[in-house]
Specification:
alpha+beta, 10-stranded mixed β-sheet, 10 strands, about 20% helix, about 30% strand, globular, isomerase, isomerase activity, Peptidyl-prolyl cis-trans isomerase
Length: about 160
């Protein structure tokens, strides 16, 4: 059985190791049946303004004691029956690609490589489960373009994501 981890390496400040097996509990997971109906979330000036206000409030009022706000809800039925994915954007952002980074190479278990722009990769979705099961045969993850254009034929067997 192939390793079920995916590495983000290359022209990045921080190489990242992804464990798709934990994403079922991630609130950012996406139901793959509805994945292409949802618009790609874009950073907005409104969200930056809200973050700025929260930061300013913390500086003037002091830090608020941290509360457990991560309410993870996963239906057992959904876990056993649905297919899930997650957007690649936050993981690429966490790896901090260098300013000159322009593209991404998806390296598959077959040895084949698929070249994408950094934007295409960032907007894409990594599927990590199919009908309640991890993608063990042709996984650990499949890549889908954000518009669903490869919905019928995803890029499978991705073991490494190399930023170039």
């Amino acid at each position: 059985m192939a390793e079920m981890l995916v590495k983000i390496v290359g022209n990045v400040k921080h190489p990242v190791m992804l464990d798709p097996g934990t994403w079922i509990f991630d609130e950012r997971r996406i139901d793959m049946e509805k994945a292409f109906d949802q618009a790609v979330e874009q950073d907005s000036s409104e969200s930056y303004a809200a973050l700025g206000k929260a930061f300013d409030r913390q500086r003037t009022e002091g830090a608020v004691p941290q509360q457990q706000t991560n309410k993870i809800t996963v239906s057992k039925k959904d876990m056993k029956e649905k297919s899930f994915g997650i957007r690649l954007r936050p993981f690429l952002q966490n790896s901090s690609p260098h300013d000159e980074a322009e593209s991404v190479r998806l390296i598959r278990s077959s040895g084949d490589e698929v070249h994408l722009t950094l934007t295409e990769a960032s907007n894409g979705i990594l599927q990590f489960s199919h009908k309640g099961s991890p993608l063990t045969e042709d996984g650990p993850v499949h890549f889908f373009f954000s518009d669903g254009s490869n919905r019928e034929k995803p890029i499978t067997g991705i073991e490494r994501i190399e930023v170039m």
